[in-house]
Write a structure and sequence with these properties.
It contains 16 helices and 21 strands. It has helices at residues 5-8, 48-66, 70-86, 88-99, 103-124, 162-174, 188-199, 215-223, 237-249, 272-284, 304-317, 330-345, 377-380, 396-404, 419-428, 463-466, and strands at residues 9-10, 13-15, 18-20, 29-33, 38-43, 130-133, 140-147, 150-154, 178-181, 207-209, 228-234, 253-257, 262-266, 294-300, 349-352, 367-370, 387-393, 411-415, 433-436, 455-456, 469-476. Helix 3 runs antiparallel to helix 6 (162-174), helix 5 (103-124) packs parallel to helix 6 and helix 10 crosses helix 11 (304-317). The structure holds nicotinamide-adenine-dinucleotide.
Length: 478
Amino acid sequence: MSLPTELLERPHLYIKGAWVPAASGRPGIDVDDPSTGTRLGGVADAGPADAIRAVDAAADALPAWSATSPRERAEILRECFAVMMRNRDTLAGLMRAENGKTLADALGEVDYAAEFFRWFSEEAVRIGGDLRLAPSGANRILVQQQPVGVSLLITPWNFPAAMATRKLAPALAAGCTTVLKPSELTPLTAYLVAELMTEAGVPPGVVNVITSTENPVVVAGMLHDPRVRKLSFTGSTAVGRLLLAQAADQIVSCSMELGGNAPFIVLPDADVEQAVDGLMVAKMRNGGQACTAANRVYAHAAVRDRVVAELSRRMGELVVGTTCAPVITAAARDRIVSLVGGAVRGGASVVTGGRSADRPGWYVEPTVVDATPPGSEMMRTEIFGPVAAVAAFTDVDEVVAAANATPYGLAAYVYTGDLRAGLALADRIEAGMVAVNRGLVSDPAAPFGGVKQSGLGREGGRHGIEEFLETKYVAVAW
Ligand code: NAD
């Protein structure tokens, strides 16, 4: 699909519903196509003054937007869903170009991203409250929920549309106004999403988008502006930790969706075919570049050989450049290949793949590594690529200990023929989300989030809107 130049060249920032030049005066940021390794387009490079201008716009728009009726906000969000679906192919084409993901993954992401608008249009009119008699009988306790205020939304490159709408939709449903700062690696999608939202009726200033190469300074400036009351961040644990410390200065409310290291456990009574079907989804969705990606495959010794054989067959069938997408940068490709090398030096064996692909663009061969040592870097960090690391286990206590031996706790997967055993295992795994006999956890109607160093708070479900609401209690006598 050929994309119009105006979607690829975005020399201005999107502030107050208009395109404005960056005051930083710096040349723009180049955006590359990972499938070719060449320049695709470019965006403006905001400095600290630009960021404050975006906060000004969001703060100016807040009184009117927070005073709209829930029904009005709901109708606008429902229209955002419709407009996004009408532009499904264009948005998918743009994501495919700047992120490298397969067309199937890109189309799937548009559907997932749009669904947050529909879901939160339905939640906008269901914001709760409470009224009760004080135990003393002297007064009533009236509890209401109000929008938290100007919200800073920071998103990663791996799901450029869905990570944005997962924040924008609940923020707007709650009555908040926003500054969205997408990753500079995939910024084009965010600008198009903002345009589509404007087309759907979102008023100027409610959604502002800035991109920058100077993220530490630009973001710190906004977090120290007393008008910014909320930070909703999705990205790595390292950056999340840094931003939590900065947010502490003004006691900014924080929601954090951070890194993961998901175990994928196959119990001896599992249907191996079905388990590998699920594993292919859990491992290869978005080319392995998902925070929920199966990072450590623990197969019971009784089924391990069959799991490895079937997985290797399926991974071997993927075609680099079509069904196996590139990774995001050349550095990411080199890091993944070096993780494989480290595991092999530690005693693991490569069953299939294992190298970068000899072609333009940033590709890693679909890879299966067996007998991966527990202490290897590959088992301890997010692989974030098309590499499955397998290890065997012999009893449930052992696999629970191994699954939990990580500072992360985002997603986990269990395959078993015995649902009771699966649910008992789900209870014992330290993760915010556990999939039992399923390779996908993401669902706009379900609470998404992690425990331990994988994050704070939840997105989606009925929980997602709560993150953008503040509770106010009024003691009233009548
Ligand atoms: P990242 O942490 O490098 O960047 C995330 C965002 O923070 C980007 O917008 C980036 O520009 C910005 N940023 C980077 N350094 C900054 C700084 N010093 N100050 C302020 N802002 C800064 O993450 P990434 O590489 O874009 O994304 C991959 C990571 O995101 C992985 O760890 C993945 O697990 C995680 N992730 C988590 C979820 C989730 O829901 N838990 C979802 C998707 C991705």
